[in-house]
Amino acid sequence: MKRKILGLFLTFTMCTAMFAGCGNSVKDSGEAASATDMNGEESVSDMTNNLSDLEAVVHEIPAGESKSGNPLKGLIPFQGSTTDFPHSMDWFYIPVSAVQVANNIFDWNALEEKLNESAEQGHQAVLRFYYDYPGETIGVPQFLIDGGLEMKPYDEPDDLGGGGLCPDYSDENLRASMKNFIKAFGHKYDGDPRIGFITEGLLGFWGEWHNLPYDEDTYDGKPDWSIPT
Fold it and tell me: How far apart are CA 159 and CA 145, in angstroms?
């Protein structure tokens, strides 16, 4: 039900993270990051220790036929849905685990496939990365789990659409890897015309910045998994 509601009624009030902001957070960074494919072979040149010294990535995207005269406006269906109403954007979630191989190693192929799928339809993508999506693929990169990150199990299909594993958001290794991901993502995709909006995500169920019903209200007998600042 949640996917249908989001697919039909997603509005731009959710789209709080624009590319300019994402790119600026990268340009202020001095930490290193690199990109390899899943086999360990380099697929993108290694980032230097000073990301501000790098030139902006140039994205050559062929124009597609637009299905709507209102770019960056209107209803947004899930990518791959069979709806036939006019629209200029597609919506999708993607787990961080699909692109982050290690603390500073990234394979962007999964994201590239989704962006290209939208571009081939003449659409732009609206996307959100997540670590925890009830009932869906775990979004926490495996290297963090292997490193001892606490993963809290839950199983409430009536309320959440399926069980899952909630990471401990206070874990310093998780926080460090999250910062590295944001920097690398911003550097690679800042200004990419295939992307219309990046919605605020990463933290909490569905990347919505909450873990309801696991919150400060413990009268329901559920532990408090509030996300620390």
Answer: 26
